[in-house]
Task: inverse folding
């Protein structure tokens, strides 16, 4: 079912602001098949600029969503932000192997993200509502707590680095250094390379094997 990919122009259903210059783009799904954790490539129809985005919505939703951080001068993020309901976005996909194996569904999970790297975990937790997880989210400002109401309140930790507030003041690596991590958990990382490298070093120092760590880099 997920071994092939498609390319199609998807009609926009709506765009909603998510704070901190980010927004969620909701489109018609157009029978796109994907597994939670996979990504698509988006751009304007006939446009020359394209960018990869993890799917934000669940595989069980009848629509397709991506969470986008608008970048000053960004060729794709700014172009898509100027669109409106009824306009179309060219979508290619889905791609990627950042997925949860059905054999691991009963295991505890530690999800660690920075910024919009929370996207695949939003898809995971919506599709697998009974998942045993803790989500550590590294952000700069409180307003970057994207759709926290969609998660179990006691399962998400916001690590806020540039202002007071949230669950922890500092970076995700600081939180990890100060807290214990179950040795039997599966760890999934999605975010900038600095975070991923730092978390890898902490986990390696605690004896985590590479086969229990899965990473997706955001640039």
Result:
């Amino acid at each position: 079912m997920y071994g092939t990919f498609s390319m199609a122009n998807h009609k926009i259903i709506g765009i909603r602001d998510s704070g901190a210059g980010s927004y969620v783009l909701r489109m018609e799904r157009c029978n796109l098949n994907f597994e939670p954790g996979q990504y698509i490539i988006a751009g304007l129809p006939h446009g020359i600029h394209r960018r990869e985005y993890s799917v934000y919505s669940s595989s069980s939703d009848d629509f397709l969503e991506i969470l986008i951080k608008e970048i000053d001068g960004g060729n794709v993020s700014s172009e898509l932000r100027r669109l409106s309901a009824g306009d179309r976005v060219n979508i290619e996909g889905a791609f990627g192997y950042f997925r949860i194996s059905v054999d691991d569904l009963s295991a505890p999970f530690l999800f660690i993200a920075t910024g919009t790297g929370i996207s695949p975990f939003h898809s995971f937790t919506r599709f697998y509502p009974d998942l045993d997880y803790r989500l550590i989210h590294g952000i700069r400002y409180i307003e970057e707590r994207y759709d926290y109401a969609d998660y179990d309140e006691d399962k998400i930790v916001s690590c806020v680095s540039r202002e007071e507030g949230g669950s922890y003041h500092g970076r995700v690596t600081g939180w990890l250094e100060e807290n214990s991590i179950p040795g039997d958990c599966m760890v999934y990382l999605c975010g900038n390379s600095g975070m991923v490298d730092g978390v890898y070093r902490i986990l390696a120092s605690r004896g985590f094997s590479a086969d229990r760590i899965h990473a997706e880099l955001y640039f």
Observations:
- The radius of gyration is 17 Å.
- The helical segments are 77-81, 119-127, 172-178, 193-205.
- The chain has two domains: 6-95, 102-217.
